[in-house]
Amino acid sequence: MAVEQVAVLGVGMHPWGKWGRNFVEYGVAAARDALADAGIAWSDVGFVAGADTMRNGYPGYVAGATFAQALGWTGIPVTSAYGACASGAMALDAARQRILSGMCDVALVVGADTTPKGFLKPNAGERGDDPDWLRFRLLGMTNPSYFAMWARRRIDLYGATTDDFAKVKIKNAAHGLHNPYARYRKAVTAEDIAASPTVSSPLRLLDICATSDGGAAIVLTSMEYARKHLASAQGSTDPLVRVAAVSTVTPTFPNTILEMPNLATDSAAGIAVPGRGFKQAIGDAAYAQAGLGPDDVEVAEVYDLSTALELDWYEDLGFCGPGEAEQLLRDGVTQVGGRLPVNPSGGLACFGEAVPAQAIAQVCELTWQLRGTARGAQADNPKVGITANQGLFGHGSSVILTR
Amino acid sequence: MGRHHDHVRSGLATTRVPAIEGWFSMPPEDTPIPADGSGVPGISLLGTRCVDSGTYFFPPERVMSRAPGFAESELVDVELSTTGTLWSYTDAQYQPPSPFVAPTDPYVPYCLAAVELAEEQLVVLGQVIAGVTVDDLRVGMPMELVADELNSDEEHTYIVWKWRPVTDGATDTSGAK
Question: Do A253 and B114 touch (CB under 8 A)?
């Protein structure tokens, strides 16, 4: 049975880039944009949920309070969520639950990050009991090395080629060409990709997403509040976008797919392997909450940490069967103008990853897509959109928006 | 094991120690680590087995069985299979960040392997021994476990497990121990 919906009344983003400024600036800019977009004053917000950053000291661990203080304390309750790449969706879910429980009408969700140059690496210190430290110490296993292992599986199992991976990048680069929030706004050719150095075979530099600075925010309200607010707002023509699902499920034991930052998988000996893998379960839970299925989806924002990973998501979200993602791509189904545009924002290929902001940015983009107001590439009148991401330590999320 | 053995590889006498305690068995103290980086066979990864469910854990789980419904089950130490099949692989063309320590200067790229152990039905990551490139690897090929130097400093030579392709006739490929 579908769960009750809440309204996305406003969204806002700070452009992605390598600005090198305090992450709080980006979050505040995004929050103010979202409040302006909603036509709501900060003083009317009843709850704030922040998505944490692990790379900016204590203020990053208490992001909700950091943003609330920067916007000016108003005495409202706060929460801060950390779930790696799913952090933004966890903050969104906390806000949604506050509203659905009747404890507030208006909630603000904010995530922002300032990232260092180069490979993401573990926090400092000797931590021999932390798999995120050990994978670097014992193996030198970077995030791109995990992406590459998964990409190699597509080649081996399904006959994918590096040309297919390149097509994902070319598509997403074309999508992001005119997106003012994207960091990279440049057409990419197959020759560009072939000329970029191999980082982790079979993935080249242009197959792998960068790390970026950025900020994103959402103003979430009850459906009743949104209807009243829009009725009184002069000249408001945006169709009302709703959150139909927020999935933040964890893996089921035994998880037999290699996951970051683990050095091994669970064992399939003795205990039956679940019929649906972790990434599939993330989408399944979202569809179940929304009372919708893959056939209803008309636009998607999925986590293309690598080009090959975008193809995995086509299958894990049920857009096609196992091994059919390359054909969907080659047929143009997932480009803007096709039946199911994927990453019309340009995706991580054009943004780079700003971890705590990214899941929120996916929702911002889908909100614009569903309103028909995307400033970059606009899908053809979509009414249902889905997001998906996956991060370290058993985290992942999927959000379904409808109008 | 091996903690007080003087190890000579680069002209410096160092003490041979595991890069992490309790995850694998060390090679005998009098067995030299080949200078060509080919590794020392005969070591094992050390895991635990949940007696009641029959599932395995690596790294060794010692607090409680993570198999749902088997929290009360006894966990016993086991040596894992020393051979398996290649699940996937890649290489590290750029030097990984700290706490990785490159054993050579300049940095030399190396391969990484995810190897599926047949009996335990789990996949274990490891570096691949020096001299192997991705062109030498294919998913499904047999791989075997060896001990090799991870890196060394003035006092210690840190030993880690690595994977290497099974060469025909060179080793026993029967798997489980």
Answer: no
A309 and chain B in contact, CB less than 8 A: no
Q: CA A89, CA A225: separation in Å to the nearest integer?
A: 22
3-state secondary structure of A159: coil
Supply angle C-alpha A166, A256, B118, rounded to 5: 110
HSE, side-chain direction, 13 A CA sphere, residue A90:
23
Tens of pLDDT along A34-44?
999 999 999 99
**The tokens of A321 are what?**
């069967």
Interchain pair B91, A139: CB under 8 A: no
Taking the mean position of all CA atoms in its chain, how far away is CA B101? 17
Do A265 and B134 make contact, defined as CB atoms within 8 angstroms? Answer: no
Q: Which domains does chain A have, with CATH numbers?
A: 6-118+213-241 (3.40.47.10), 131-207+244-402 (3.40.47.10)
pTM for the whole structure? 0.95
The one-digit pLDDT tens for each residue of chain B (177 residues) are: 333 444 445 545 789 999 999 999 999 999 999 999 999 999 999 999 999 999 999 999 999 999 999 999 999 999 999 999 999 999 999 999 999 999 999 999 999 999 999 999 999 999 999 999 999 999 999 999 999 999 999 999 999 999 999 986 554 444 433
Answer whether A258 touches B (CB < 8 Å). yes
Residues of chain A found within 8 Å of residue B123, distances taken between Cβ atoms: 256, 258, 264-265
Nearest chain B residue to A268 by CA: give it.
B121
**Across the interface, do A258 and B138 touch by the CB < 8 Å criterion?**
no
Residue B171: its pLDDT value, please? Answer: 47
Q: Which two tokens stand for residue B115?
A: 């190897």
pLDDT digits (tens, 9 = 90+) for B88-134: 999 999 999 999 999 999 999 999 999 999 999 999 999 999 999 99
CA separation for the pair A134, A125 (Å, rounded): 11
